[in-house]
Specification:
105 residues; mainly alpha; 5 helices; extended
Length: 105
């Protein structure tokens, strides 16, 4: 029973801490430095997810020889550099990954 109370308590704390931004977000003004730094959250999260997925357990050794994942990452990086749009880069990266895998490269 105690473990269920801990789960429920943690869930409530998480729910209300995240919900507070929705309820009070327009009334609370964040400092300018925090607002500027929030612009980097999406790219940092994307990199934190993609780098281990591409490198795997082998680390930098998995980059040689090039794999379809590395090629798709480079194509997506070029797309984000040209378009400055993460959604377009994600779509281009996924399509290029599928094509590179289909071609057997």
């Amino acid at each position: 029973m105690r473990i269920w109370l801990i789960f429920i308590g943690c869930g409530l704390v998480t729910y209300f801490s995240r919900g507070s931004f929705i309820l009070f977000g327009d009334r609370v003004k964040l400092p300018e430095t925090i607002q500027r730094s929030l612009a980097y959250v999406a790219p940092a999260t994307f990199a934190a997810i993609m780098v281990p997925a591409v490198l795997g357990n082998e680390g930098l050794a998995s980059l040689v020889p090039p794999t379809p994942e590395v090629g798709a990452i480079l194509i997506a990086a070029l797309a984000v550099w040209k378009t400055r749009n993460m959604a377009i880069a994600l779509a281009i990266g996924m399509v290029s990954l599928w094509l590179l895998q289909w071609l057997g490269l």
